[in-house]
Amino acid sequence: MFFITDFKKKSCLETISKQVGQLQLEPPVVRNVQEAVTLLGRKDVRVNCLDEHGMTPLMHAAYKGKVEMCKLLLQHGADVNCNQHEHGYTALMFACLSGKKEIVWMMLEAGADTDVVNSVGRTAAQMAAFVGQHDCVTVINNFFPREKLDYYTKPQGLNTEPKLPVKLSGPLHKIITTTNLHPVQIIFLIKENPLLLDAEALKRCSAVLDLICEKCMKQRDMNEVLAMKMHYISCIFQKCSAHLQEQENQLDPLIKSLLKGREGDCFPVFQEKFIRESIRKFPYCETTLLQQLVRSIAPVEIVRVLLGVGNIGHIALNSSLAAAESDPMDLTPQRFSVLTQAITGQVGFVDAEFCTTCGEKGADKRCSVCKLVIYCGQKCQKLHWFAHKKVCNILKEKREKQELEASKEKKRQERLAERELKSAESTASQEEDNGESEASTVRESDSTVEETVTSAAAAAADDDDDETSADPIQPDAPEGAGQ
Protein backbone atom coordinates (compact mmCIF):
# COMPACT_ATOMS: atom_id res chain seq x y z
CA MET A 1 0.00 0.00 0.00
CA PHE A 2 1.42 3.38 -1.03
CA PHE A 3 0.67 6.57 0.87
CA ILE A 4 1.31 10.21 0.15
CA THR A 5 3.51 12.16 2.52
CA ASP A 6 1.97 13.07 5.87
CA PHE A 7 1.85 16.82 5.35
CA LYS A 8 0.24 16.42 1.94
CA LYS A 9 -1.96 13.40 2.66
CA LYS A 10 -5.08 15.14 3.89
CA SER A 11 -5.14 17.94 1.34
CA CYS A 12 -4.49 15.64 -1.62
CA LEU A 13 -7.14 13.16 -0.55
CA GLU A 14 -9.68 15.93 -0.06
CA THR A 15 -8.87 17.28 -3.52
CA ILE A 16 -9.35 13.87 -5.15
CA SER A 17 -12.58 13.26 -3.23
CA LYS A 18 -13.78 16.71 -4.28
CA GLN A 19 -13.12 15.84 -7.91
CA VAL A 20 -15.06 12.59 -7.46
CA GLY A 21 -18.00 14.38 -5.84
CA GLN A 22 -18.18 17.08 -8.48
CA LEU A 23 -18.19 14.69 -11.43
CA GLN A 24 -21.43 15.09 -13.44
CA LEU A 25 -22.62 13.50 -16.66
CA GLU A 26 -22.48 16.81 -18.49
CA PRO A 27 -19.79 18.80 -20.36
CA PRO A 28 -17.93 19.58 -17.09
CA VAL A 29 -17.05 15.87 -16.90
CA VAL A 30 -14.07 16.25 -19.21
CA ARG A 31 -12.77 19.23 -17.27
CA ASN A 32 -13.04 17.43 -13.92
CA VAL A 33 -11.41 14.28 -15.23
CA GLN A 34 -8.57 16.31 -16.71
CA GLU A 35 -8.07 18.07 -13.40
CA ALA A 36 -7.98 14.69 -11.68
CA VAL A 37 -5.43 13.46 -14.26
CA THR A 38 -3.25 16.45 -13.47
CA LEU A 39 -3.58 15.85 -9.77
CA LEU A 40 -2.78 12.14 -10.05
CA GLY A 41 0.28 12.99 -12.11
CA ARG A 42 1.92 14.73 -9.16
CA LYS A 43 4.71 12.87 -7.41
CA ASP A 44 3.36 13.52 -3.92
CA VAL A 45 -0.02 11.91 -4.68
CA ARG A 46 -0.69 8.21 -4.31
CA VAL A 47 -3.80 6.80 -5.89
CA ASN A 48 -4.33 4.33 -3.04
CA CYS A 49 -4.27 6.87 -0.20
CA LEU A 50 -6.70 6.27 2.67
CA ASP A 51 -9.02 8.53 4.59
CA GLU A 52 -9.82 8.25 8.29
CA HIS A 53 -12.25 5.37 7.56
CA GLY A 54 -9.81 3.42 5.40
CA MET A 55 -11.50 4.33 2.12
CA THR A 56 -9.52 4.91 -1.06
CA PRO A 57 -10.54 7.37 -3.79
CA LEU A 58 -11.64 4.35 -5.86
CA MET A 59 -14.02 3.28 -3.09
CA HIS A 60 -15.47 6.80 -2.93
CA ALA A 61 -15.93 6.91 -6.70
CA ALA A 62 -17.51 3.44 -6.79
CA TYR A 63 -19.92 4.23 -3.96
CA LYS A 64 -21.00 7.49 -5.64
CA GLY A 65 -21.45 5.77 -8.99
CA LYS A 66 -18.85 7.82 -10.89
CA VAL A 67 -18.04 5.66 -13.90
CA GLU A 68 -15.48 7.92 -15.56
CA MET A 69 -13.63 8.58 -12.32
CA CYS A 70 -13.45 4.85 -11.55
CA LYS A 71 -12.01 4.23 -14.99
CA LEU A 72 -9.44 6.97 -14.48
CA LEU A 73 -8.36 5.71 -11.06
CA LEU A 74 -8.01 2.13 -12.33
CA GLN A 75 -5.90 3.36 -15.25
CA HIS A 76 -3.58 5.00 -12.72
CA GLY A 77 -3.13 1.79 -10.77
CA ALA A 78 -5.82 1.95 -8.10
CA ASP A 79 -5.88 -1.24 -6.01
CA VAL A 80 -9.24 -2.84 -6.68
CA ASN A 81 -8.78 -5.36 -3.86
CA CYS A 82 -7.73 -2.94 -1.12
CA ASN A 83 -9.59 -3.95 2.04
CA GLN A 84 -8.22 -1.50 4.59
CA HIS A 85 -11.70 -0.16 5.22
CA GLU A 86 -12.71 -0.19 8.88
CA HIS A 87 -15.49 -2.70 8.14
CA GLY A 88 -13.62 -4.69 5.50
CA TYR A 89 -15.46 -3.27 2.49
CA THR A 90 -13.81 -3.41 -0.93
CA ALA A 91 -14.33 -1.26 -4.00
CA LEU A 92 -16.47 -4.03 -5.52
CA MET A 93 -18.73 -3.98 -2.48
CA PHE A 94 -19.16 -0.21 -2.75
CA ALA A 95 -19.93 -0.61 -6.47
CA CYS A 96 -22.65 -3.13 -5.60
CA LEU A 97 -24.14 -0.75 -3.06
CA SER A 98 -24.30 1.97 -5.73
CA GLY A 99 -26.18 -0.35 -8.09
CA LYS A 100 -24.05 0.61 -11.11
CA LYS A 101 -23.58 -2.48 -13.28
CA GLU A 102 -20.93 -0.73 -15.38
CA ILE A 103 -18.76 -0.10 -12.33
CA VAL A 104 -19.26 -3.65 -11.03
CA TRP A 105 -18.16 -4.99 -14.40
CA MET A 106 -15.21 -2.61 -14.42
CA MET A 107 -14.07 -3.83 -11.01
CA LEU A 108 -14.37 -7.45 -12.06
CA GLU A 109 -12.34 -6.88 -15.21
CA ALA A 110 -9.69 -5.17 -13.08
CA GLY A 111 -9.34 -8.35 -11.03
CA ALA A 112 -11.69 -7.78 -8.10
CA ASP A 113 -11.93 -10.79 -5.81
CA THR A 114 -15.58 -11.87 -5.48
CA ASP A 115 -14.94 -14.16 -2.49
CA VAL A 116 -13.71 -11.50 -0.04
CA VAL A 117 -16.05 -10.99 2.93
CA ASN A 118 -16.57 -7.91 5.09
CA SER A 119 -16.70 -7.68 8.88
CA VAL A 120 -20.15 -9.32 8.99
CA GLY A 121 -19.16 -12.17 6.68
CA ARG A 122 -20.87 -11.03 3.48
CA THR A 123 -19.42 -11.10 -0.03
CA ALA A 124 -20.04 -8.37 -2.59
CA ALA A 125 -22.79 -10.43 -4.27
CA GLN A 126 -24.49 -11.09 -0.92
CA MET A 127 -24.38 -7.38 -0.07
CA ALA A 128 -25.89 -6.51 -3.44
CA ALA A 129 -28.69 -9.02 -2.91
CA PHE A 130 -29.28 -7.72 0.61
CA VAL A 131 -29.87 -4.15 -0.59
CA GLY A 132 -31.92 -5.25 -3.62
CA GLN A 133 -29.31 -4.64 -6.36
CA HIS A 134 -30.13 -7.88 -8.19
CA ASP A 135 -28.64 -6.74 -11.49
CA CYS A 136 -25.26 -6.44 -9.79
CA VAL A 137 -25.67 -9.96 -8.43
CA THR A 138 -26.35 -11.18 -11.95
CA VAL A 139 -23.21 -9.46 -13.29
CA ILE A 140 -21.03 -11.07 -10.62
CA ASN A 141 -22.56 -14.53 -11.11
CA ASN A 142 -22.04 -14.36 -14.88
CA PHE A 143 -18.52 -12.98 -14.91
CA PHE A 144 -15.76 -15.09 -16.43
CA PRO A 145 -12.19 -13.71 -16.55
CA ARG A 146 -10.87 -13.16 -20.06
CA GLU A 147 -7.46 -14.63 -19.17
CA LYS A 148 -9.08 -17.99 -18.39
CA LEU A 149 -10.53 -18.07 -21.89
CA ASP A 150 -7.29 -16.87 -23.47
CA TYR A 151 -5.62 -19.96 -22.00
CA TYR A 152 -7.24 -21.99 -24.78
CA THR A 153 -5.82 -19.69 -27.48
CA LYS A 154 -2.33 -21.09 -26.84
CA PRO A 155 -1.08 -24.56 -27.76
CA GLN A 156 -1.04 -26.86 -24.74
CA GLY A 157 1.13 -29.93 -24.23
CA LEU A 158 1.97 -31.76 -27.41
CA ASN A 159 -0.65 -29.90 -29.42
CA THR A 160 0.73 -27.61 -32.06
CA GLU A 161 -2.54 -25.78 -32.64
CA PRO A 162 -4.62 -23.94 -30.02
CA LYS A 163 -8.09 -25.22 -29.28
CA LEU A 164 -9.50 -21.72 -29.84
CA PRO A 165 -8.31 -19.24 -32.48
CA VAL A 166 -7.29 -15.90 -31.00
CA LYS A 167 -9.75 -14.04 -33.21
CA LEU A 168 -12.68 -15.97 -31.64
CA SER A 169 -11.69 -15.27 -28.04
CA GLY A 170 -13.24 -11.80 -27.87
CA PRO A 171 -16.63 -12.65 -29.43
CA LEU A 172 -16.89 -15.83 -27.37
CA HIS A 173 -16.06 -14.01 -24.14
CA LYS A 174 -18.84 -11.50 -24.83
CA ILE A 175 -21.36 -14.33 -25.13
CA ILE A 176 -20.05 -16.17 -22.08
CA THR A 177 -20.45 -13.13 -19.85
CA THR A 178 -23.89 -12.12 -21.07
CA THR A 179 -26.64 -12.00 -18.46
CA ASN A 180 -29.45 -12.66 -20.94
CA LEU A 181 -29.48 -16.39 -21.64
CA HIS A 182 -32.50 -16.43 -23.94
CA PRO A 183 -31.59 -18.66 -26.91
CA VAL A 184 -32.75 -16.02 -29.40
CA GLN A 185 -30.53 -13.39 -27.72
CA ILE A 186 -27.53 -15.76 -27.90
CA ILE A 187 -28.19 -16.20 -31.62
CA PHE A 188 -28.41 -12.41 -32.00
CA LEU A 189 -24.91 -12.13 -30.47
CA ILE A 190 -23.64 -14.79 -32.86
CA LYS A 191 -25.07 -12.93 -35.86
CA GLU A 192 -23.47 -9.67 -34.71
CA ASN A 193 -19.98 -11.06 -35.29
CA PRO A 194 -19.18 -12.42 -38.77
CA LEU A 195 -16.36 -14.52 -37.31
CA LEU A 196 -18.92 -16.68 -35.52
CA LEU A 197 -21.16 -17.15 -38.56
CA ASP A 198 -19.24 -20.24 -39.53
CA ALA A 199 -20.17 -23.80 -38.65
CA GLU A 200 -16.58 -24.85 -37.96
CA ALA A 201 -15.91 -21.82 -35.75
CA LEU A 202 -19.00 -22.57 -33.69
CA LYS A 203 -17.91 -26.19 -33.29
CA ARG A 204 -14.53 -25.10 -31.93
CA CYS A 205 -16.18 -22.65 -29.54
CA SER A 206 -18.55 -25.37 -28.38
CA ALA A 207 -15.63 -27.72 -27.72
CA VAL A 208 -13.90 -25.06 -25.59
CA LEU A 209 -17.09 -24.46 -23.63
CA ASP A 210 -17.32 -28.18 -22.93
CA LEU A 211 -13.75 -28.14 -21.62
CA ILE A 212 -14.54 -25.19 -19.33
CA CYS A 213 -17.64 -27.03 -18.10
CA GLU A 214 -15.55 -30.09 -17.28
CA LYS A 215 -12.93 -28.00 -15.51
CA CYS A 216 -15.58 -26.28 -13.41
CA MET A 217 -16.85 -29.64 -12.19
CA LYS A 218 -13.45 -31.23 -11.53
CA GLN A 219 -11.68 -28.35 -9.85
CA ARG A 220 -11.32 -28.20 -6.08
CA ASP A 221 -13.96 -25.50 -5.68
CA MET A 222 -16.63 -27.02 -7.91
CA ASN A 223 -18.79 -24.45 -9.71
CA GLU A 224 -22.02 -26.12 -10.79
CA VAL A 225 -23.66 -22.87 -11.90
CA LEU A 226 -20.87 -21.89 -14.29
CA ALA A 227 -20.64 -25.45 -15.59
CA MET A 228 -24.37 -25.48 -16.40
CA LYS A 229 -24.12 -22.14 -18.15
CA MET A 230 -21.18 -23.26 -20.31
CA HIS A 231 -23.02 -26.46 -21.21
CA TYR A 232 -26.20 -24.57 -22.10
CA ILE A 233 -24.38 -22.08 -24.38
CA SER A 234 -22.48 -24.98 -25.94
CA CYS A 235 -25.81 -26.63 -26.84
CA ILE A 236 -26.95 -23.42 -28.56
CA PHE A 237 -23.67 -23.24 -30.50
CA GLN A 238 -24.09 -26.85 -31.64
CA LYS A 239 -27.64 -26.17 -32.80
CA CYS A 240 -26.50 -23.06 -34.70
CA SER A 241 -23.63 -24.96 -36.31
CA ALA A 242 -26.00 -27.64 -37.55
CA HIS A 243 -28.39 -25.04 -39.01
CA LEU A 244 -25.56 -23.17 -40.73
CA GLN A 245 -24.65 -26.37 -42.52
CA GLU A 246 -28.22 -27.24 -43.44
CA GLN A 247 -29.64 -23.78 -44.22
CA GLU A 248 -26.76 -22.30 -46.25
CA ASN A 249 -25.29 -20.06 -43.54
CA GLN A 250 -28.64 -18.73 -42.36
CA LEU A 251 -29.77 -18.60 -38.73
CA ASP A 252 -33.09 -16.86 -39.33
CA PRO A 253 -34.99 -20.16 -39.77
CA LEU A 254 -33.68 -21.31 -36.38
CA ILE A 255 -34.84 -18.08 -34.75
CA LYS A 256 -38.32 -18.49 -36.24
CA SER A 257 -38.54 -22.07 -35.06
CA LEU A 258 -37.66 -20.94 -31.53
CA LEU A 259 -40.36 -18.25 -31.65
CA LYS A 260 -43.05 -20.27 -33.39
CA GLY A 261 -45.99 -20.95 -31.11
CA ARG A 262 -48.53 -23.72 -31.17
CA GLU A 263 -52.07 -23.15 -32.35
CA GLY A 264 -54.43 -21.57 -29.87
CA ASP A 265 -52.08 -19.96 -27.39
CA CYS A 266 -48.82 -19.30 -29.31
CA PHE A 267 -46.81 -21.16 -26.66
CA PRO A 268 -43.18 -21.66 -27.90
CA VAL A 269 -43.13 -25.44 -27.81
CA PHE A 270 -39.88 -25.90 -29.75
CA GLN A 271 -38.06 -23.45 -27.50
CA GLU A 272 -39.25 -25.25 -24.38
CA LYS A 273 -38.26 -28.62 -25.81
CA PHE A 274 -34.82 -27.31 -26.77
CA ILE A 275 -34.13 -26.02 -23.26
CA ARG A 276 -35.40 -29.30 -21.79
CA GLU A 277 -33.10 -31.23 -24.07
CA SER A 278 -30.14 -29.03 -23.13
CA ILE A 279 -30.71 -29.68 -19.44
CA ARG A 280 -31.16 -33.39 -20.10
CA LYS A 281 -27.76 -33.57 -21.81
CA PHE A 282 -25.87 -32.09 -18.85
CA PRO A 283 -23.24 -34.80 -18.22
CA TYR A 284 -23.08 -34.51 -14.42
CA CYS A 285 -26.33 -35.99 -13.12
CA GLU A 286 -25.22 -36.07 -9.48
CA THR A 287 -25.09 -32.29 -9.15
CA THR A 288 -27.50 -30.55 -6.81
CA LEU A 289 -28.26 -27.83 -9.35
CA LEU A 290 -29.41 -30.31 -11.99
CA GLN A 291 -31.68 -32.11 -9.55
CA GLN A 292 -33.23 -28.80 -8.51
CA LEU A 293 -33.81 -27.85 -12.13
CA VAL A 294 -35.47 -31.15 -12.91
CA ARG A 295 -37.73 -30.92 -9.87
CA SER A 296 -38.78 -27.44 -10.96
CA ILE A 297 -39.55 -28.18 -14.59
CA ALA A 298 -40.81 -31.76 -14.46
CA PRO A 299 -44.33 -32.39 -13.09
CA VAL A 300 -43.47 -35.94 -11.99
CA GLU A 301 -41.60 -37.02 -8.91
CA ILE A 302 -37.88 -37.54 -9.38
CA VAL A 303 -37.02 -41.16 -8.60
CA ARG A 304 -34.20 -41.95 -6.26
CA VAL A 305 -32.11 -43.49 -9.00
CA LEU A 306 -31.46 -39.92 -10.22
CA LEU A 307 -29.01 -39.62 -7.36
CA GLY A 308 -26.80 -42.13 -9.13
CA VAL A 309 -24.29 -41.35 -11.87
CA GLY A 310 -23.59 -42.56 -15.36
CA ASN A 311 -26.20 -44.11 -17.63
CA ILE A 312 -28.58 -44.98 -14.80
CA GLY A 313 -28.81 -41.37 -13.79
CA HIS A 314 -29.41 -40.32 -17.38
CA ILE A 315 -32.21 -42.89 -17.76
CA ALA A 316 -33.97 -41.52 -14.71
CA LEU A 317 -33.50 -37.94 -15.89
CA ASN A 318 -34.75 -38.75 -19.38
CA SER A 319 -37.84 -40.46 -17.97
CA SER A 320 -38.67 -37.51 -15.73
CA LEU A 321 -38.33 -34.93 -18.46
CA ALA A 322 -39.92 -37.03 -21.19
CA ALA A 323 -43.03 -37.46 -19.07
CA ALA A 324 -43.73 -33.76 -19.46
CA GLU A 325 -42.93 -33.49 -23.14
CA SER A 326 -46.48 -34.12 -24.32
CA ASP A 327 -47.84 -30.88 -22.86
CA PRO A 328 -45.24 -28.20 -22.13
CA MET A 329 -47.92 -25.82 -20.87
CA ASP A 330 -48.25 -28.04 -17.79
CA LEU A 331 -44.74 -27.05 -16.76
CA THR A 332 -45.01 -23.94 -14.63
CA PRO A 333 -42.96 -21.89 -14.43
CA GLN A 334 -41.44 -22.14 -17.92
CA ARG A 335 -38.10 -23.84 -18.29
CA PHE A 336 -36.29 -20.71 -19.46
CA SER A 337 -37.28 -18.71 -16.38
CA VAL A 338 -36.24 -21.57 -14.08
CA LEU A 339 -32.90 -21.98 -15.86
CA THR A 340 -32.25 -18.23 -15.82
CA GLN A 341 -32.91 -17.95 -12.09
CA ALA A 342 -30.63 -20.90 -11.39
CA ILE A 343 -27.71 -19.59 -13.47
CA THR A 344 -27.85 -15.82 -13.10
CA GLY A 345 -29.14 -15.68 -9.54
CA GLN A 346 -32.00 -13.43 -10.62
CA VAL A 347 -34.84 -13.83 -8.17
CA GLY A 348 -38.40 -14.50 -9.23
CA PHE A 349 -40.01 -11.60 -7.39
CA VAL A 350 -38.03 -8.93 -9.20
CA ASP A 351 -40.52 -6.50 -10.69
CA ALA A 352 -39.46 -6.22 -14.34
CA GLU A 353 -40.79 -6.81 -17.85
CA PHE A 354 -38.99 -9.04 -20.36
CA CYS A 355 -39.05 -8.97 -24.14
CA THR A 356 -41.16 -11.77 -25.61
CA THR A 357 -38.72 -12.27 -28.47
CA CYS A 358 -35.25 -12.05 -26.94
CA GLY A 359 -35.88 -12.03 -23.19
CA GLU A 360 -34.21 -8.65 -22.64
CA LYS A 361 -35.00 -7.16 -19.25
CA GLY A 362 -36.68 -3.77 -19.03
CA ALA A 363 -38.80 -4.09 -22.16
CA ASP A 364 -41.47 -1.36 -22.28
CA LYS A 365 -43.00 -1.55 -25.78
CA ARG A 366 -46.40 -3.26 -26.01
CA CYS A 367 -48.39 -4.49 -28.97
CA SER A 368 -50.73 -1.65 -29.92
CA VAL A 369 -53.64 -4.04 -30.51
CA CYS A 370 -53.69 -6.59 -27.69
CA LYS A 371 -51.50 -4.53 -25.31
CA LEU A 372 -50.38 -7.73 -23.60
CA VAL A 373 -47.23 -8.85 -25.44
CA ILE A 374 -44.11 -6.85 -24.58
CA TYR A 375 -41.03 -6.13 -26.70
CA CYS A 376 -37.74 -4.31 -26.21
CA GLY A 377 -37.93 -2.65 -29.62
CA GLN A 378 -39.39 -2.59 -33.10
CA LYS A 379 -36.90 -5.18 -34.37
CA CYS A 380 -38.12 -7.83 -31.96
CA GLN A 381 -41.75 -6.94 -32.59
CA LYS A 382 -41.36 -7.39 -36.35
CA LEU A 383 -39.49 -10.65 -35.87
CA HIS A 384 -42.22 -12.06 -33.62
CA TRP A 385 -45.19 -10.81 -35.64
CA PHE A 386 -45.45 -13.97 -37.79
CA ALA A 387 -46.31 -15.91 -34.63
CA HIS A 388 -48.13 -13.22 -32.67
CA LYS A 389 -50.56 -12.20 -35.41
CA LYS A 390 -52.36 -15.54 -35.07
CA VAL A 391 -53.40 -14.85 -31.50
CA CYS A 392 -53.29 -11.05 -31.30
CA ASN A 393 -57.06 -10.56 -31.71
CA ILE A 394 -57.77 -13.46 -29.38
CA LEU A 395 -55.57 -11.88 -26.72
CA LYS A 396 -57.30 -8.56 -27.31
CA GLU A 397 -60.71 -10.13 -26.72
CA LYS A 398 -59.45 -11.84 -23.58
CA ARG A 399 -57.98 -8.59 -22.30
CA GLU A 400 -61.20 -6.69 -22.97
CA LYS A 401 -63.21 -9.44 -21.31
CA GLN A 402 -60.91 -9.39 -18.28
CA GLU A 403 -61.10 -5.61 -18.11
CA LEU A 404 -64.91 -5.76 -18.33
CA GLU A 405 -65.05 -8.39 -15.60
CA ALA A 406 -62.61 -6.37 -13.50
CA SER A 407 -64.76 -3.27 -14.01
CA LYS A 408 -67.90 -5.16 -12.98
CA GLU A 409 -66.14 -6.58 -9.97
CA LYS A 410 -64.91 -3.13 -9.03
CA LYS A 411 -68.43 -1.71 -9.26
CA ARG A 412 -69.78 -4.64 -7.28
CA GLN A 413 -67.18 -4.03 -4.60
CA GLU A 414 -68.04 -0.32 -4.59
CA ARG A 415 -71.76 -1.09 -4.22
CA LEU A 416 -71.01 -3.57 -1.48
CA ALA A 417 -68.86 -1.02 0.30
CA GLU A 418 -71.57 1.59 -0.13
CA ARG A 419 -74.19 -0.76 1.34
CA GLU A 420 -71.90 -1.58 4.22
CA LEU A 421 -71.36 2.11 4.81
CA LYS A 422 -75.10 2.82 4.76
CA SER A 423 -75.71 -0.14 7.04
CA ALA A 424 -73.08 1.14 9.43
CA GLU A 425 -74.60 4.62 9.32
CA SER A 426 -78.09 3.21 9.87
CA THR A 427 -76.87 1.13 12.80
CA ALA A 428 -75.14 4.15 14.26
CA SER A 429 -78.29 6.25 13.79
CA GLN A 430 -80.45 3.54 15.35
CA GLU A 431 -78.09 3.26 18.28
CA GLU A 432 -78.22 7.03 18.64
CA ASP A 433 -82.03 6.96 18.58
CA ASN A 434 -82.07 4.15 21.10
CA GLY A 435 -79.76 6.16 23.28
CA GLU A 436 -81.99 9.19 23.05
CA SER A 437 -85.09 7.03 23.77
CA GLU A 438 -83.42 5.52 26.80
CA ALA A 439 -82.37 8.96 27.96
CA SER A 440 -85.97 10.21 27.46
CA THR A 441 -87.32 7.25 29.41
CA VAL A 442 -84.88 7.94 32.20
CA ARG A 443 -85.88 11.57 32.17
CA GLU A 444 -89.57 10.66 32.25
CA SER A 445 -88.94 8.21 35.06
CA ASP A 446 -87.02 10.83 36.97
CA SER A 447 -89.83 13.31 36.34
CA THR A 448 -92.44 10.80 37.59
CA VAL A 449 -90.40 10.14 40.69
CA GLU A 450 -90.07 13.84 41.27
CA GLU A 451 -93.80 14.36 40.80
CA THR A 452 -94.53 11.50 43.18
CA VAL A 453 -92.19 12.90 45.76
CA THR A 454 -93.68 16.37 45.26
CA SER A 455 -97.24 15.03 45.59
CA ALA A 456 -96.33 13.16 48.73
CA ALA A 457 -94.71 16.24 50.17
CA ALA A 458 -97.72 18.35 49.27
CA ALA A 459 -100.11 15.87 50.84
CA ALA A 460 -98.06 15.82 53.98
CA ALA A 461 -98.10 19.63 54.05
CA ASP A 462 -101.90 19.69 53.62
CA ASP A 463 -102.36 17.34 56.55
CA ASP A 464 -100.23 19.59 58.71
CA ASP A 465 -102.31 22.63 57.68
CA ASP A 466 -105.56 20.85 58.57
CA GLU A 467 -104.35 20.05 62.02
CA THR A 468 -103.23 23.60 62.63
CA SER A 469 -106.48 25.31 61.45
CA ALA A 470 -108.88 23.11 63.63
CA ASP A 471 -110.64 24.93 66.79
CA PRO A 472 -108.81 24.12 69.95
CA ILE A 473 -110.80 22.67 72.98
CA GLN A 474 -111.53 25.38 75.50
CA PRO A 475 -110.87 24.39 79.08
CA ASP A 476 -113.72 24.49 81.61
CA ALA A 477 -114.13 27.88 83.35
CA PRO A 478 -113.17 27.81 87.01
CA GLU A 479 -115.93 27.84 89.40
CA GLY A 480 -117.05 31.29 90.53
CA ALA A 481 -115.26 32.94 87.68
CA GLY A 482 -118.04 35.35 86.90
CA GLN A 483 -118.95 36.04 90.35
Automatic annotation (TrEMBL):
<dbReference type="Pfam" id="PF01753">
    <property type="entry name" value="zf-MYND"/>
</dbReference>
<feature type="domain" description="MYND-type">
    <location>
        <begin position="355"/>
        <end position="392"/>
    </location>
</feature>
<keyword id="KW-0966">Cell projection</keyword>
<dbReference type="InterPro" id="IPR002893">
    <property type="entry name" value="Znf_MYND"/>
</dbReference>
<dbReference type="InterPro" id="IPR002110">
    <property type="entry name" value="Ankyrin_rpt"/>
</dbReference>
<feature type="region of interest" description="Disordered">
    <location>
        <begin position="402"/>
        <end position="483"/>
    </location>
</feature>
<protein>
    <recommendedName>
        <fullName>MYND-type domain-containing protein</fullName>
    </recommendedName>
</protein>
<keyword id="KW-0040">ANK repeat</keyword>
<feature type="compositionally biased region" description="Low complexity">
    <location>
        <begin position="450"/>
        <end position="460"/>
    </location>
</feature>
<keyword id="KW-0862">Zinc</keyword>
<feature type="compositionally biased region" description="Basic and acidic residues">
    <location>
        <begin position="402"/>
        <end position="423"/>
    </location>
</feature>
<dbReference type="InterPro" id="IPR036770">
    <property type="entry name" value="Ankyrin_rpt-contain_sf"/>
</dbReference>
<keyword id="KW-0969">Cilium</keyword>
<keyword id="KW-0863">Zinc-finger</keyword>
<keyword id="KW-0677">Repeat</keyword>
<keyword id="KW-0479">Metal-binding</keyword>
<feature type="repeat" description="ANK">
    <location>
        <begin position="87"/>
        <end position="119"/>
    </location>
</feature>
<dbReference type="InterPro" id="IPR052452">
    <property type="entry name" value="Ankyrin-MYND_dom_contain_2"/>
</dbReference>
<dbReference type="Pfam" id="PF12796">
    <property type="entry name" value="Ank_2"/>
</dbReference>
<feature type="repeat" description="ANK">
    <location>
        <begin position="53"/>
        <end position="85"/>
    </location>
</feature>
